[in-house]
């Protein structure tokens, strides 16, 4: 607990990060409880199409007469969920690969790092597009595709951390005690290697949200769900007459991604205090 | 001789990457539900089981998987990427046709982004913690968080629909018979919005990178020496520090090529720019798997080659790296 308080005290010094955290919490709360406070079905055609913002429809209606504010709230759930789970998946893959490569070294390291570099080279967005096109767009295939293309940076970082730790005295002590490699890697090194990884994977959430929005803009999205990128894609058809329609969900993405980036940087400063003077 | 050897060794390093891309493509092809025989059969109005089996035999799809892989590999190595059954043309032709437009767009975006990013980064570092640094950093943060395709749409609204300064899509005015210099101008005016859209994110990225890199170089001894000799602060910043802060930015340009290709797909879709991205979008709409995989293959090769080029440029810019 004191660890967390200490962390918060250092995090608090970065004003931008605190502001980002505040707005991010607002967005998360809106995604969780918004549908209760604003009980309009985002999938229901309730008004005339393409109406500008008014008292009845605070942000107007889209091309099929669906309420945009309700879509925004529903989209927050989809976009945040995909972003979170995809980055969690990428973190699990990345840490596993990086831990094995860094801890085992030698032959494992060569093969796994070649694999990582390989995935870093292929144009990730193109690969994601092809994967989703092959397995048909659904919330699962989109999430998996994003995770599959975003793990390499995590793997590299985790490898560096594990390499730096594996010959420390405490690890040697564990070996002398007869602990298994698995136990040393997961229970002893992991807690020490994790802080920088957490920073990177929290920033991955932002990238994942951006990737998801791009994919659903191309139509690669679950046909039964509304996400922010999908709303931009829909609004695009009436860009000339109703520019606010694609503008609104785009601003939602921008603010969310900005907040996550600010919080991520704040966490980075809080976790690595020595680098803070920059 | 030694130089030639090192070039040859680097060339050799791309072989595993190319092989890896081939394996990946082959795996994806076989994970897809339905094979080429099904597609062709469906297009010719469906057929009985015997007809599909016949097709499968003629495509060699009844052979063992490893044999199929070597046949596939052989085809890839001779740049035979298969046939697009939707567009009724070889995949390679379709792709080659579109590469110049994408390269033009990406090159413009890279050059503009690198130059602007370096200049802004230098200024921000030289005005460290002053208001100008703050303004540049805030703009960079915003640009960093903006979805590119959305930015493109908003630029179209502002500059084409409202102000009418730039065309909203395409690469050139159709059926305008222009002399060559006006033709170049025509393409340039079509290029402005897409390249700004694609480049802005990288301006932000390179600005932040250049700033951090400059701030690090500022702590080195040779900067202190230069200052002690009485070299002006402007000269120290722009000449002494900038030259040494460049390399991380250059590395990033190489690393980001694949990322930029992804951005290019979205930007080309927004602006109807007739490049690889637009082709990918069409292939997606028509469920043209051969073409999709062909684009993945060629764009991966493109990234590998660019990285190789950046690697070699490294040795030229920083002789210490040449070994």
TrEMBL record, chain A:
It is a multi-pass membrane protein. The chain crosses the membrane at residues 15-38, 80-103, 115-135, 197-221, 241-264. Keywords: Cell membrane, Membrane, Peptide transport, Protein transport, Transmembrane, Transmembrane helix, Transport. It holds the Pfam family OppC_N. SUPFAM superfamilies: MetI-like. PROSITE patterns: ABC_TM1 (PS50928). The keyword Protein transport applies. Residues 76-264 form the ABC transmembrane type-1 domain. It comes from the Bacteria. It is found in: Cell membrane. Belongs to the binding-protein-dependent transport system permease family. This is Peptide/nickel transport system permease protein. It comes from Aquamicrobium terrae. The lineage of its organism: Bacteria, Pseudomonadati, Pseudomonadota, Alphaproteobacteria, Hyphomicrobiales.
From TrEMBL, chain B:
Belongs to the binding-protein-dependent transport system permease family. Keywords: Cell membrane, Membrane, Transmembrane, Transmembrane helix, Transport. This is Peptide/nickel transport system permease protein. Signal peptide: none annotated. The chain crosses the membrane at residues 99-126, 138-167, 187-205, 245-271, 291-317. It is found in: Cell membrane. The keyword Transmembrane applies. It holds the Pfam family BPD_transp_1. Residues 99-314 form the ABC transmembrane type-1 domain. Its main location: membrane. The keyword Cell membrane applies. It is a multi-pass membrane protein. It comes from Aquamicrobium terrae.
